[in-house]
Design brief:
Blueprint (H helix, E strand, L loop, with lengths): L1 E10 L2 E12 L4 E3 L4 H17 L8 E7 L11 H11 L11 E3 L2 E2 L5 E2 L24 E5 L11 E4 L2 H9 L14 H4 L5 H4 L10 H13 L3 E4 L6 H11 L5 H13 L13 E2 L7 H5 L1 E2 L7 E2 L2 H4 L4 E4 L7 H5 L2 H6 L1 E6 L2 E6 L3 E6 L18 H8 L4 H6 L2 E4 L17 H17 L4 H5 L5 H14 L3 H17 L7 H9 L6 H4 L3
Parallel strand pairs: 3-4, 5-8, 8-9, 10-17, 10-18, 11-14, 14-17
Antiparallel strand pairs: 1-2, 2-4, 6-7, 12-13, 15-16
Helix pairs in contact: 1-2, 6-7, 6-15, 6-18, 17-18, 17-19, 18-19
Length: 512
């Protein structure tokens, strides 16, 4: 007798249902086609112990399992649950007819508990392979209770233990069975974003210009690079930008949870707060943009850029990252996507994160490079700053220099920014930008005054800006006008946007 059901395989961006076929015959061996003997023995050990924990005996026969299509991944522990169900159906414990229209996935513990597995993501229905003739007959998905159900394309039943699955499948009317669910496990695991919300502008003394640009960056999703001596508030300002961001929508938060799930992680957040990623300077290129697993069919593993999708990627000590790692930031800064192509396959990962980079002005980090506390030579400072190449700096919209404005009253007329007003302005402008994506914001947004247009044109000759640089100045100036609720982009808006192009100045690469 052959019992058939469905399991789940694939990788992020290419999920797929897999047919699980099981046959009992004379003998004692446990075989799974396409899997090494060691992996098959490990699966058999987990399944045998889980069945015993539920009060059921292991069949005293040889078991042969076939997973089809044969070219898909067979390394995932997610096949524990469908194989166990096929064993139970072959032994007559559950009706075999109950497995015809379900797909199950989950790793099992020795006590029968169900656990999520690496890349535990079902994805959307249109992304599934239809290679199997009756894949469209699947009506229900069975998964561990810690699995994120928000992206499930089909009705999803969540369980914590194998015994609950058995009771569900033995019930004549399955709609009456209510599995024991863990309430929003993603929100209960941690709240790493809670301490970020407590950070406000009150912690930073002075630096009103930097605070103003932080509000603009949060409202318009403009990437930022900050330069200043230690202790000037670069990290605190980055946390303020995160705190200014509004809560994510259910769809956006669901995307974040799916990406973390694809990496085998839980999103430690609460109240739909945007993710916050701050990788160490020792992080290599694969850790930042993602990598491809050595396991056959495991697929892509999202990196820090993708894990920070819809949130903040904070790269402290930016110049201390390796040159290759920094150059890998070009693509996500420009397209907000990461395309990975390897011999094992190719995929595209989302990377729409707001980059905030921070660095010291010189290698010693004790000063601005031009005072008595700094003992760095000019060539050392030049070599240190050249770690930030022109293409990288050109893709970052806002360049800030901290450590100069130390008083609350600023001579240039910049007024103190209220935290409440800043959050309200960011929420209002961000909603407008979301409703006017791409080039629509330049069509529907406030136009340039004649004087502002002249100043914008002069920025190219004075600051030697590229076409991308001019676009960033115009974009930042528009966000500034929207924050001020101004019907026009005025000269002051172009001036503050142009002044934030620190890395375009000739004096930047020629210190002292």
């Amino acid at each position: 007798m052959i019992v058939s059901t469905f399991g789940f395989a694939g990788s992020p961006g290419s999920p797929c249902f897999v047919r699980v076929e099981l046959r009992l015959e004379r003998g004692i061996l446990f075989r799974i086609s396409g899997i090494s003997n060691q992996a098959a023995r490990a699966a058999a050990t987990r399944i045998r112990s889980a069945l015993m924990a539920c009060g059921h005996r292991w069949p005293g026969k040889a078991i042969t399992v076939n997973l089809a299509p044969a070219d898909l991944s067979r390394t995932s522990t997610a096949f524990d649950l469908p194989i166990a169900l096929a064993v139970l159906a072959s032994s007559g414990i559950i009706p075999s007819s109950s497995l015809k229209h379900i797909a199950a996935a989950g790793e099992m513990g020795l006590d029968g508990t169900l656990r999520p597995w690496a890349t535990s993501i079902f994805g959307f229905v249109e992304t599934f392979s239809s290679e199997l003739s009756d894949v469209q007959n699947i009506k229900t998905l069975l998964a561990p209770s810690k699995f994120d159900s928000s992206d499930s394309p089909l009705p999803l039943q969540l369980f914590t233990h194998l015994s609950e699955v058995i009771a569900y499948l033995k019930s004549p009317n399955k709609t009456k069975v209510k599995p024991h669910l863990i309430e929003n496990s993603f929100n209960s695991i941690g709240n790493t974003s809670s301490f970020l919300e407590e950070v406000t502008f009150d912690i930073i003394k002075g630096e009103e210009t930097a605070k103003r640009m932080a509000v603009i960056a949060a409202a318009g999703s403009h990437d930022v690079i900050m330069q200043g001596p230690p202790g000037t508030g670069k990290t605190v300002l980055a946390k303020c930008i995160h705190a200014l961001l509004p809560d994510l929508s259910e769809k956006e938060f669901s995307q974040c949870k799916s990406i973390h799930s694809a990496a085998g992680l839980f999103l430690k957040s609460y109240r739909n707060r945007p993710p916050w990623l701050s990788p160490h300077t020792s992080t290599n290129m694969n850790g930042l943009i993602g990598s491809w697993s050595n396991l056959k069919g495991r697929g892509a593993i999202p990196g820090a850029w993708s894990l920070a999708h819809n949130g903040i990627l904070f790269l402290d000590e930016f110049a201390e990252f390796s040159r290759g790692t920094l150059e890998a930031c070009r693509a996500p800064l420009e397209s907000k996507m990461i395309s990975l192509a390897r011999a094992a396959g190719s995929t595209t990962l989302p990377a729409s994160a707001l980059l905030i980079a921070a660095m010291n002005p010189c290698p010693c980090g004790r000063g601005n490079g031009d005072n008595a506390s700094c003992d760095c030579q000019s060539n050392e400072i030049r070599r240190y700053r050249r770690k930030i190449s022109g293409p990288i700096a050109d893709r970052i919209a806002i360049h800030l220099e901290l450590g100069h404005e130390i008083n609350d009253s600023i001579e240039n007329g910049t007024k103190n920014i209220s935290w409440t007003e800043a959050k309200s302005a960011v929420a209002r402008v961000k909603k407008w930008v979301d409703n006017n994506p791409g080039e629509e914001k330049f069509v529907n947004g406030p136009p340039l005054t004649e004087a502002a247009a002249e100043l914008l044109n002069s920025c190219r000759s004075v600051l030697k800006l590229s076409h991308r640089g001019i676009y960033h100045v115009h974009d930042v100036a528009m966000t500034a006008a929207l924050i001020d609720d101004s019907p026009l982009i005025e000269v002051k808006h172009i001036a503050e946007a142009g002044a934030s192009r620190l890395f375009d100045r000739q004096s930047w690469m020629n210190p002292r």
